[in-house]
Each structure stands twice: as C-alpha cells, then as structure tokens.
Write a structure and sequence with these properties.
Layout lengths: L8 E5 L2 E2 L5 E5 L2 E5 L7 E9 L3 E11 L25 H19 L21 E9 L2 E7 L6 E3 L8 H16 L14 E8 L5 E7 L7 H11 L3 E8 L11 E7 L2 E6 L2 E6 L8 H15 L6 E5 L5 H7 L4 E6 L2 H13 L5 E5 L2 H10 L6 E4 L10 H7 L4 E6 L2 H13 L3 E8 L9 E7 L1
Parallel strand pairs: 4-6, 11-12, 16-17, 16-19, 17-18, 19-20
Antiparallel strand pairs: 1-5, 2-3, 3-4, 5-6, 7-8, 7-10, 8-9, 10-11, 12-13, 14-15, 20-22, 21-22
Length: 450
C-alpha cells in the first residue's frame, strides 16, 4: 500500500465532480479532490493536504485525457476563481451540473425524480449583466479584476469572457484614471486607501451604470472620471458613488450619491420593464432567466383564479410574471429598497393584482397565515442558504396545493425538500437551468404537491 501523506504522488482515476467543479478520485479509503480534472481521466496527482478521510491534490501529469478536454479559452483560467469548467466542453459541464442536482436530491433529500438534462445557454460567453471588480494595489502595482481561488488576492484581469465588452472598456478607463491621479486603492489589512470596488451594471440596450465603492464620502477628480468613462462607453447612463466605511467583506455600503447622469437602468424581462438601481437584485443572465421564470410559471399551473404567495420576491420579477396568470399575488422581501422597487415596477407595468410586504419571509408568511390567507400556490426563491428553519412549517400550515421552489443551491434545495416532504408535500417535477455557464453554480426549479 502506497504511503499517503503530503507531497507524495499517486496515479488516480477521476470518478466524478464536487459541487465546486473539482474532480473526485479515491485513494486508500480517502476521497481526493483535484481541480482542473475531468471524469474518466487518469492522472498522476501530488497530494497537497491530507486529512483522515479526505485529501486535496494537484494534477502533475495527465496519463489518459478525456475526449471532452479542451484548451481553456481564457488566459486567467486556473488563476482567477470565477470559472471552474473552462477546461472541458460545455456539454460535459452541463452533464456535471445535472449530476450534482440529481445527487443532492437523492442523497440529501431522498427524492428520486426523472431529471431532464440541464437547460444550457445558447452561448456561454459574455452573459453577465453585473460585474463587481475588487481593487487592490500590491507588489505588482494596481490590480482591478477578480480574486484568486479561495483568497482575496486580486488578479488584474484585462478582459473576462463572462462579461460584456463594455465592462472591459470601463475597467480600463477606470484603471487609467486611478493611475493618472494616483488614487489609492483600499487595503483590507490596514483599512486605509479609498477605492474598494468598481461595480458595473449593463442592460440589453447597451447602456451601463457605473458605481465606485469607496472608503470615503468624496471622490477626487470626478469630472475627469466621468469623462473617461463616457469616452470609453458612450452609452454610459450614470456614475454613482457608494460609501462603505466599514471593516467588512460586504461589498456595498448603505449611502449612495449620483456623481453624473442617473442612478438606474431599465431592463426588459418576460415582456415586463424593470428599473434597476445599484443594489437591486436581478439575475445576471437575462436570456436564461426568462427560461427559468417561464418554467416557474408552468410549474405553478395557474388558471387565473389563484392567490399566489411569492416569498423572497426581490424587486418583484417573478411576482409580476405570476400576476399575469394569477388572480392575486402577494410578494414578501426583507430588503426595504427592494419592496419600494417592486411596488414601482408594478405601477410601471400596469399590474394591479399584486401587493408587496416588507419583512422576513417566515414572519410575513406566519402573519398572513394568522390572518386566514390561504394561497393555492406558494413560490419561493431564497438565497443560497435556502429557507430559514421555521419557514417550511409555516408554508405547510397555509396548505397550498403547490409549492414552486426556485433554487440556486442544490444542497439547500434538497434539505428543504426533505423538510417539506415530512410536512405532507411531495416533489413531483424538477428542471435544472444553467444561468452561470463556465462556473460551478446551477439553478433548479422544483414543484411540490400536497
């Protein structure tokens, strides 16, 4: 038996993938995780870290390559933590994501469904409508880009194949402004410096909204900055300052000030128009989001008479789509600004059968249940951590006929599905959708019935 310790090298066969997109092999009873590998391949692997039941390694020699292996089309692949699947075909990536959803539902949720193939994007390139660049200055100078895997070291990224070319031009202009006027980058270790992040939102019309996240209440040379950004992208809609003075990893602070132009963009989704400010939550892949929401509508099975409760409704995107086919929609969201946006979006689109409440999802649902509200359909689209522990019981107490769960994390989806099954609901249909090509993330729509 080979000695299993740090820095030893072993021939390993890749059997599958982790949730983060790493290859999985086995060695003397241990599971070994190896990034950049593909199932079916044989590698010589150097162990970097060894625990009792698990180890991490790096491939040092590819013995037998997979036919779906391809040369990464991005020069930052492996150095930047944004993408996990650029070394394989898109078809293999979709298969890996489908297996991830299936494994979670079966192993965590105890649910066995006939899961259709993941709905892939027509193009896995330049789909992101929002980008947040961390800014740092180190030994190699000013860096504006993305973090290295599992670190806060910033990789200076001239271009990213997930973002529109307008973002690339704006980043270059912004970096030039910082260098020309010697604007200091924020230092996480000391809490000093000014520029923390450059945030860019774009829409289908080609407009861009720029936000500078700063460790200060003023920006110097704002006229020169707005001029440089407008020269780079003539369709710049506005330039906004966000003030974040806290010692935190949270990107945005609470205070905003418009430096030039306007502080919002409009975007069309599913035939509806939404106004997006900097903090507005909006899915980053517009085309795939339309497919996701269409599935949610189909799973809801609306006839025009139902009352629908939409929890974690954000700025009302799913709520307003549901309202076109429902009798009445009630949306709930904990973020006050999002609820203001949702109400404004309802007015903007002439939707009169939707109302919105601000509050924690569980508390709002419990309050409505106490008032005798009995929705026939409940739709939930929670954050990555899934439903709060008390929410499944509250949903079940309202006795809806159907629950539609839109999930961005298969593990928490499976956990919550198991909770709901214990409360009298059965998973009957699911469909994964790839909203984030080339990354390890996958969305799933699932329908449960009482």
């Amino acid at each position: 038996m080979a000695e299993v310790r740090k820095n030893t090298v072993h021939p390993l066969h890749i059997e599958g993938y982790t949730a983060e997109g790493m290859g999985v092999a086995r060695l003397d009873g241990r599971v070994v995780f190896i990034p950049g590998t593909i199932r079916g391949e044989d590698w010589e692997v150097q162990l970097l870290k060894v625990n009792k039941g698990v180890a991490w390694g790096k491939g040092t020699r590819l013995i037998s390559p997979s036919p779906v292996r391809q040369e990464p089309d991005c020069p930052y692949s492996g150095r930047c933590g944004g993408c996990q699947y650029r070394h394989m075909s898109y078809e293999e990536e979709l298969a890996a994501k489908g297996q991830r959803v299936r494994d979670a539902l079966e192993r965590v949720g105890g649910v066995h469904l006939e899961l259709p193939p993941v709905l892939g994007a027509e193009s896995p390139l330049r789909y992101r409508n929002k980008v947040q660049f961390p800014v740092s200055r180190g030994k190699c100078g000013l860096s504006i880009g993305f973090y290295r895997p599992r670190s806060h070291d910033v990789v200076d990224t001239e271009d990213c194949l997930l973002q529109p070319e307008a973002d690339t031009a704006l980043r270059l202009a912004f970096k030039g402004w910082m260098e020309d006027f010697q604007i200091p980058a924020y230092d996480e270790c000391t809490g000093r410096g000014l520029i923390r992040h450059l945030y860019i939102r774009t829409n289908r019309a080609g407009e861009a909204l720029c936000c500078v996240v700063a460790n200060g209440k003023e920006l110097p040379h704002t006229g020169e900055l707005s001029g440089a950004l407008r020269a780079a992208v003539p369709k710049l809609a506005g330039l906004v300052l966000n003030v974040n003075l806290r010692d935190t990893n949270v990107i945005l602070g609470d205070a905003y000030r418009t430096l030039w132009g306007r502080d919002w963009l409009e975007e069309e989704l599913c035939g509806l128009t939404f106004r997006l400010s900097v903090p507005s939550f909006f899915q980053i892949n517009r085309d795939q989001t339309e497919r996701l929401y269409q599935l949610a509508l189909e799973f809801a099975g609306l006839t025009g008479e139902e009352t629908v409760l939409d929890l974690y409704c954000g700025i009302g995107t799913i709520s307003l789509c549901l309202a076109r086919l429902a009798g009445h929609v009630i949306g709930a969201e904990v973020v006050p600004q999002a609820i203001e946006d949702a109400r404004a979006n309802a007015l903007r689109n002439g939707v009169t059968n939707a109302e919105f409440f601000c509050g924690d999802a569980g508390e709002v649902a419990a309050r409505l249940a106490g008032q005798g509200v009995r929705p026939q359909v409940i739709c939930v689209d929670p954050p990555r951590k899934g439903l709060a522990p008390e929410v499944p019981a509250v949903l079940a107490s309202m006795a809806p006929d159907r629950i539609v769960y839109v999930s961005c994390d298969p593990a928490t989806l499976a956990r919550d599905v198991k909770r709901l099954e214990e409360l009298g609901y059965r998973a009957v249909q699911a469909q994964p959708v790839d909203l984030f090509p080339r990354t390890a993330h996958v969305e799933t729509v699932l329908r449960m019935e009482r």
